[in-house]
Design a protein that fits this description.
Blueprint lengths: L21 E2 L1 E3 L10 E3 L5 E6 L10 E6 L9 E4 L15 E4 L5 E4 L5 E4 L15 E4 L5 E4 L5 E4 L7 E2 L4 E5 L4 E2 L2 E6 L2 E11 L7 E5 L2 E6 L7 E6 L4 E9 L3 E8 L6 E5 L5 E7 L4 E8 L14 E4 L6 E4 L3 E3 L2 H5 L7 E3 L15 E9 L5 E3 L4 H9 L6 E6 L10 E6 L6 E3 L7 E7 L1 H6 L11 H10 L1 H6 L18 H33 L15 H7 L8 E5 L2 E8 L2 E8 L7 H13 L8 E7 L2 E7 L6 H5 L10 H21 L14 E3 L5 E3 L4 H11 L14 H6 L4 H17 L15 H10 L17 H14 L10 H10 L19 H11 L13
Parallel strand pairs: 1-3, 26-34
Antiparallel strand pairs: 2-10, 3-4, 4-5, 5-6, 7-8, 8-9, 10-11, 11-12, 13-23, 14-15, 14-22, 16-17, 17-18, 18-19, 20-21, 21-22, 23-24, 24-25, 26-27, 28-29, 30-34, 30-35, 31-33, 32-33, 32-35, 36-37, 37-38, 38-40, 39-40, 41-42
Helix pairs in contact: 6-11, 10-13, 10-16, 13-15, 14-15
Bound molecules: 2-acetamido-2-deoxy-beta-D-glucopyranose (8 copies).
Length: 865
C-alpha cells in the first residue's frame, strides 16, 4: 500500500454559513463570537469559530480552530474546545464565546449556561488592564495575552487530536501535568475517542500510542539527541523534531521549513498516528507517514524475545540472537504472540563449571519496554550493574544531551523480565545498542557484532550467595518517577520512516542518479586513471584480526559516519574507521572516492593511509594522532590548560588553512559538512589536523538517491541554510568554522552553552559581548595569562563574520586566512541578523526555545514571513 497517495476523505467537514466578521482577536468588552462569525489569524492561516461536524444535523455546534482560506474544501479542524459539551442553536438564540473580565474565555450556550471555559485562575479581576485579548496566531495557537506580552493561556497547551508545528507534547514537573493527543471518536464526532498519544509518565523516556489503556505502539526510549531532522521529499519540506528540557518541563516539539504551514501530526479516529500535509496540486491531504506502518510495529507483536526487523523490505518478526521460536509451527504460520525462548539456558548463578554467560551487543535496535532506569551510571557501571545481578537479562546505555533537573546525563536501562516490543531499526538516529545476556557458548559463536564477553559467573555467584549484605551496595534505583529525571522520548518512529523511505527511494532512483555522480568524479580527476594513486588496499581479515573482531576494547570513538578503532597494522599505530552501513555506495565508487581523498595531502589534514572493502563493509585507515581530538582537551577542565592562547591561535589558523585547501586549493572543492571540535585532531605538537573530510562525498551519492534525506552534520555547528533547507556550500563550512573559533576563544562547548548566561546560544552571547565592546571578556579564563587581547578580538570578530546568518555575508576562507595571518584591522561589522527578543509570534518562541536547549539546532529561519 502506498500511503503517500492516500487521501483523507473524512476530513471534509461542512463549514457553517459564510463568515462575516474577520478579526484576529476577541478583546475585553468586544462583541462575543457567535456562529455567524469567525476570527481569522492575521496571516490568514487559521480560523476560530463554530462548526458542525455533520451536514444533515446542525444541532451540535462545536467551537474549533481550522485551516482558513487557500482552497481546502470543507474544514480540517485541528482543535476543539467543547469536545464533551456541544452547543445547540435555535432560531432566536445561539451560543457565544466571550472574554470575561477575569481574563477567561467563556463559551455559553443559547440559554447562558457555561459549556466550556479556559479556567485561568489566580488573576484578580480588578488588576486586569484593558488590553487583554484572546488572539488567534498564525500558527493556529489561540492565546489569551496580557498587554505586557505574557500568555495567560494557550490552546497549544491543551491539544485535541492534532500536533501542529510549535506545539509541545510533554510533561510539566511542578504540576505533573501531561497532555496527550486524543483522537476524535469518529470522523464526524469530535468527542474524545479511545486513541491517545503522549508521554509515558512512568519513565518520561518514551512516547506511546494507546488504545484506551492498552499500548498500541511505542517509540523506543530516548537515546539522547536533541534534534532529529529529516527531509520529507514527498512534500518537499524539512521536519525538525526536538526534545527540549528546561527546569520546569520536558517536551517534544517540532517545526518545518518555511512555506510548509499546512502540516500536522494527527491521531486518527481509526487509531493511526499520521503525518499529513496539504497538497495544493492535488487539493488533498497526503499522508506522509503512518504508524504503526506494519503489523510488526504494533506493540508486542513479535512476542517476548522476538523483535520486528525493519531493515528488510517487508518488516517481520525474528527471534533475538540466541533465541528460537517457542512454537516453531505456530511461528511459521505467522503466530508470533508466544515469542521466542532461549536456545541454551543461562549458566547464571547456579551454573557451575562450564564457562560464564556473556553479553552480545545488538546495534541499531529500538530497546524493549519494561526497563528500569538506573540513575547515575556510566556505560561501564551500567554493564557492571547488569553483570552482577543474576536476574538482569539485558542493558542499554546512552548519553543524554540534556541534564534536566538532576544533572544526571546518563541513561542506563536494565531489564530483568521478558524482553517485549523490541525492534531492529538499523544504524539510524535514535537507535540503541542493546546488550543481551546469553549463555557463554551462544555469545561466543556470534560473528561481527559480538563485542564484549564478560565472564560474570564469579561476581554473580558471590553476590547471590552473600545475598542481602551486598545487595545494598548493588541497589538498583527506583524508576525515574521519583529519582531522576527528565526526559522523554522520541522519534524512533521517525527513524523508521527515514529508514523505510530511504529503502523505497533507492529502488527507483539508483539508476537515475548514479551515472551522473560517477561522471562527476571522473571529471574531477581530469581523466587521470584513479589507479595511479598508491592507496594500499588492506585485507578485511587483517583488520578483523588487528581489532579482534572490532572489539570494544579497541574502540576510540564514534561519529556520524561510523566507529573508530585504534590498532597496530604493519607495525604502525593507525586509526581504523569502520563506516556505518548507511552508505549504499557500491564498492567501485567507494574505491574511487577513497583514492580521491588520498590525493588530498596537507599538513592540516589527517592522512588517509589505506582502505578496505568487503561486501557491505567499508573501512578507511588513517594515521593515528596521539593527542586525539580537540574537544577531548578543550572541554575538559583538567586538560584545557594544555591549550594556552598561542596554541589555540595556531589551531584556529591551522584549521583555517586546512579548510582553505579543501575549498579552494585542492582540485576537488571538498565541502566538509561536519566541521567541529571532535573532527579536529591534534598531533604530538598540538598542531591541528582536520579529520573526516571527504566523508560527505562518500555518503553524498546515497544522500542524493534517498527519497528521504538525513541531514548530515552536527546540530549547533550547522549553518542555518543547511539545517533548514539542506543547501550546503563552502559557506556552510565557514559557518562551522566560526562556531569552532568561538569555542576555542571562550572554551565553552557550543552544545553545552550554559543558559545561566541569559543568552540562547554561544553565537548570540559572543555577538552581544562583542557589540557592547566587551569582546576581550569572551576569552576563556584559563588563557587569561597567555592571551593577546588583539588576537582574541580578531578571532572573535572573524568568528562572528563567519557565523552570520546570511551565507552571502560570510567571508571566503581565503579572506579568513589572510586576515588571521596579517592581523587585519579593517574587517566589516558583522550583520546583526541573530534575531532574538524581537517579534512575538509563537513560532518565534518555539525557535527560541529550541535554540536554547542544549546541543541544538538554530531554527532561525522559520518565522520569516
Ligand atoms: C450574528 O448573530 C447575532 C446573534 O445571533 C446577531 O446579533 C448579529 O447581528 C449577527 N451578525 C451578523 C453580521 O449577522
Ligand atoms: C477550574 O479549575 C479548578 C481548579 O484548578 C477546578 O476545581 C474547577 O473544576 C475548574 N472549573 C472548570 C469549569 O473547569
Ligand atoms: C466582572 O464581571 C462581573 C460579571 O460580569 C461583574 O460582576 C464584576 O463587577 C466585573 N468586575 C470588574 C472589575 O469589572
Ligand atoms: C505581565 O503581567 C503578568 C500579570 O500581571 C505578570 O504575571 C507577568 O510577570 C508580567 N510579565 C512581564 C514580562 O512583565
Ligand atoms: C481498540 O480497543 C477496542 C476495545 O478494547 C478494540 O475493539 C479495537 O479493535 C481496538 N482497536 C485497535 C485499532 O487496536
Ligand atoms: C550522581 O553522582 C554524583 C557524584 O557521584 C552525585 O553528586 C549526584 O548527586 C548523583 N545524582 C543522582 C541523581 O544520584
Ligand atoms: C558517553 O560520554 C562519554 C564521556 O563524554 C564518552 O566517553 C562515551 O563514549 C559516551 N558513550 C556513548 C555510548 O556515546
Ligand atoms: C536485580 O534486579 C532485580 C530487578 O531489576 C532487582 O529487583 C534486584 O534487587 C536486583 N538485585 C541486586 C542484587 O541488585
Amino acid at each position: 500500500m502506498d500511503w503517500s497517495l492516500a487521501v483523507l476523505l473524512f476530513l471534509l467537514l461542512l463549514p457553517l454559513p459564510p463568515p462575516c466578521a474577520s478579526d484576529d482577536r476577541l478583546s475585553l468588552g468586544s462583541k462575543p463570537l457567535s456562529p455567524n462569525s469567525t476570527i481569522v489569524s492575521t496571516g490568514g492561516g487559521f480560523a476560530l469559530g463554530f462548526f458542525s461536524p455533520t451536514s444533515s444535523n446542525q444541532a451540535k455546534l462545536y467551537l474549533g480552530i481550522w485551516y482558513a482560506g487557500g482552497g481546502i474544501p470543507g474544514l480540517t479542524v485541528v482543535w476543539v474546545a467543547n469536545r464533551d459539551t456541544p452547543a445547540t442553536a435555535t432560531n432566536t438564540a445561539a451560543p457565544t464565546l466571550s472574554l470575561t473580565n477575569t481574563s477567561n474565555l467563556v463559551l455559553s450556550d443559547a440559554g447562558g449556561a457555561v459549556l466550556w471555559t479556559t479556567n485561568v485562575t489566580g488573576v484578580v479581576s480588578s488588576s486586569i488592564p484593558a488590553g487583554v485579548a484572546a488572539v488567534l496566531l498564525d500558527t493556529g495557537n489561540l492565546v489569551i495575552r496580557h498587554p505586557n506580552g505574557t500568555a495567560l493561556w494557550e490552546s497549544f497547551d491543551h491539544p485535541s487530536d492534532s500536533f501542529l508545528p510549535g506545539m509541545k507534547i510533554g510533561f510539566v514537573y511542578a504540576t505533573r501535568a501531561t497532555e496527550r493527543l486524543v483522537s476524535w471518536a469518529a470522523p464526524d464526532d469530535p468527542s474524545p475517542g479511545s486513541f491517545t498519544y503522549g508521554v509515558d509518565t512512568a519513565t518520561l523516556l518514551q512516547l506511546f500510542l494507546w488504545n484506551g489503556t492498552r499500548p498500541l505502539m511505542r517509540d523506543g526510549p530516548w537515546t539522547g539527541y536533541a534534534v532529529a531532522g529529516w527531509y520529507q521529499a514527498n512534500a518537499g519540506v524539512f521536519v525538525y523534531q526536538a526534545v527540549v528540557s528546561t527546569a520546569d518541563e520536558i517536551y517534544l516539539t517540532y517545526s518545518v521549513s518555511d512555506g510548509a504551514s499546512r502540516i500536522r501530526f494527527v491521531v486518527t479516529p481509526a487509531g493511526a498516528y499520521q503525518l499529513q500535509s496539504w497538497n495544493a496540486g492535488s487539493s488533498s491531504w497526503a499522508v506522509l507517514g503512518d504508524s504503526p506502518a506494519y503489523d510488526c510495529n504494533r506493540y508486542g507483536h513479535c512476542g517476548p524475545y522476538g523483535y520486528c526487523d525493519n531493515t528488510v523490505a517487508a518488516p517481520t518478526c525474528v527471534c533475538l540472537d540466541g533465541f528460537e521460536p517457542a512454537d516453531t509451527a505456530e511461528w511459521s504460520r505467522g503466530g508470533f504472540e508466544q515469542g521466542c525462548r532461549r536456545k541454551e539456558a543461562l549458566a547464571g548463578c547456579a551454573g557451575g563449571g562450564g564457562g560464564g554467560d556473556g553479553f552480545l551487543a545488538l546495534t541499531g535496535m529500538k530497546s524493549p519496554d519494561k526497563f528500569v532506569h538506573v540513575a547515575n551510571r556510566t556505560l561501564d557501571e551500567c554493564a557492571a550493574e547488569c553483570t552482577s545481578n543474576c536476574s538482569c537479562v539485558a542493558y542499554a546505555y546512552a548519553n543524554l544531551s540534556t541534564t534536566g533537573t538532576t544533572g544526571d546525563m546518563t541513561r542506563c536501562l536494565v531489564w530483568s523480565g521478558e524482553l517485549i516490543d523490541t525492534e531492529k531499526l538499523g544504524d539510524v538516529v535514535g537507535s540503541d545498542t542493546l546488550y543481551l545476556r546469553l549463555a557463554g557458548t551462544d555469545a561466543a559463536v556470534q560473528g561481527n557484532v559480538f563485542s564484549a564477553m564478560l565472564t560474570v559467573c564469579a561476581t554473580c555467584r558471590r553476590t547471590c550467595v552473600k545475598g542481602k549484605s551486598s545487595s545494598n551496595a548493588l541497589r538498583i534505583a527506583l524508576p525515574t518517577v521519583l529519582t531522576s529525571t527528565i526526559l522523554i522520548i522520541t522519534g524512533i518512529l521517525l527513524a523508521c520512516w527515514i529508514k523505510s523511505k530511504g529503502k523505497r527511494g533507492n529502488k527507483e532512483d539508483n539508476n537515475k542518479i548514479s551515472p551522473g555522480a560517477r561522471s562527476k568524479s571522473d571529471e574531477l580527476v581530469e581523466g587521470s586513471a584513479a589507479q595511479d594513486v598508491e592507496l594500499p588496499f588492506i585485507k578485511f581479515e587483517d583488520i578483523e584480526a588487528a581489532t579482534q573482531n572490532f572489539s570494544e576494547a579497541y574502540k576510540i570513538g564514534q561519529g556520524g559516519f561510523g566507529k573508530v578503532y585504534k590498532a597496530m597494522l604493519g607495525g604502525q599505530e593507525v586509526a581504523i574507521k569502520r563506516l556505518s552501513k548507511d552508505s549504499e555506495q557500491g564498492m567501485e565508487e567507494f574505491r574511487n572516492e577513497a583514492i580521491l581523498i588520498a590525493k588530498l595531502q596537507h599538513r592540516n589534514l589527517v592522512r588517509l593511509l589505506g582502505c578496505s572493502v568487503q561486501d557491505r563493509e567499508k573501512i578507511l585507515i588513517y594515521e593515528y594522532l596521539p593527542n586525539r581530538s580537540l574537544d577531548a582537551i578543550l572541554f575538559d577542565n583538567s586538560r584545557k590548560v594544555l591549550l594556552d592562547w598561542p596554541t589555540r591561535f595556531n589551531i584556529i589558523k591551522g584549521v583555517a588553512r586546512g579548510l582553505l585547501y579543501l575549498h579552494q586549493d585542492s582540485r576537488l572543492t571538498i565541502v566538509h559538512r561536519d566541521l567541529k571540535a571532535a573532527n579536529v585532531l591534534l598531533d604530538a605538537e598540538m598542531r591541528p589536523k582536520i579529520a573526516d573530510f571527504g566523508m560527505a562525498r562518500i555518503f553524498s551519492d546515497n544522500q542524493k538517491n534517498a527519497n528521504t534525506q538525513r541531514v548530515v552534520g552536527t546540530y549547533g555547528y550547522m549553518a542555518p541554510e543547511y539545517a533548514m533547507e539542506g543547501v550546503f556550500s563552502i559557506k556552510s563550512d565557514v559557518y562551522s568554522f566560526g562556531v569552532l573559533t568561538l569555542e576555542l576563544v571562550t572554551g565553552i562547548r557550543r552544545s553545552a552553552f550554559n543558559k545561566t548566561k541569559d543568552f540562547p546560544n554561544l553565537t548570540i552571547y559572543a555577538w552581544d559581548m562583542w557589540k557592547e565592546g566587551n569582546g576581550k571578556d569572551l576569552a576563556d579564563p584559563s588563557i587569561m595569562d597567555t592571551c593577546s587581547v588583539d588576537e582574541v578580538l580578531l578571532c572573535s570578530h572573524m568568528a562572528l563574520l563567519c557565523a552570520q546568518e546570511n551565507s552571502d555575508d560570510r567571508p571566503l576562507m581565503s579572506s579568513v586566512v589572510l586576515a588571521l595571518e596579517n592581523g587585519s584591522t579593517t574587517l566589516p561589522t558583522p550583520n546583526n541578523s541573530w534575531h532574538y527578543g524581537q517579534g512575538s509570534s509563537d513560532m518565534e518562541q518555539t525557535r527560541y526555545r529550541i535554540d536554547s536547549s542544549t546541543n541544538s539546532l538554530t531554527l532561525t529561519n522559520i518565522e520569516g514571513r
